[in-house]
TrEMBL record:
Name of the molecule in the record: Uncharacterized protein
Topology class, membrane: Multi-pass membrane protein
Spans traversing the lipid bilayer: 16-40
Keyword Transcription regulation in annotation: no
GO CC terms in record: membrane
UniProt KW Aminoacyl-tRNA synthetase keyword: no
PANTHER family: MANNOSE-P-DOLICHOL UTILIZATION DEFECT 1 LEC35 -RELATED, MANNOSE-P-DOLICHOL UTILIZATION DEFECT 1 PROTEIN
Family from the record: Belongs to the MPDU1 (TC 2.A.43.3) family.
Pfam families named among the record's database cross-references: PQ-loop
Domain of life: Eukaryota
Length: 55
């Protein structure tokens, strides 16, 4: 988050600033996609660990 957007959100409490809100939503969407991709692999990792083999 840029300094400008940080100031707008947390100092001015301007949550509807369009450019900053768009950047925040984009960043949150990217993080959620990465987190979702990681969560999909968790069951497979648990099976590998419990079987002690990747065969």
């Amino acid at each position: 988050m840029s300094d400008h957007c940080y100031d707008k959100f947390f100092l001015d409490f301007d949550f509807f600033n369009a450019p900053c809100l768009t950047a925040l939503i984009s960043k949150l969407l990217g993080y959620s996609i990465v987190a979702g991709a990681m969560m999909v692999k968790v069951p497979q990792i648990i099976k590998i660990i419990s079987a002690k083999s990747a065969v």
